[in-house]
Amino acid sequence: MIHTTTRVLTSALPGHLGRTVSVSGWVHALRLQRTMQFLVLRDHSGMTQVTHRRDGGPLDALLDSLTPESAVRISGRVVEAPQVKLGGLEIVPENIEVLNRAETPLPIDDRSGPEHRLDWRFLDIRRRPQAGLLFAVQTTFEQGLREYAARQGCTELHTPKLMGSASESGAEVFRLGYFDRSAYLAQSPQFYKQMAVAAGIDRVFEIGPVFRAEPSFTSRHATEFTGVDVELSWIDDVEEVMAFEERMLAHAVARVAEAHGESIRAVFGVEVVVPQVPFPRITMARAQKVLRAGGWDPEGVKEDLDPDGERRIAAWARERFGHEFLFVTHYPASVRPFYHMRPADRPDLTLSFDLLWKGLEVTTGAQREHRSDVLLKQTEEKGVDTGSMQDYLNVFRFGCPPHGGFGAGLSRLLMVMLGLDSIREAVFLFRGPNRLTP
Question: Domain 10-100 - what CATH class?
Answer without folding.
Answer: mainly beta
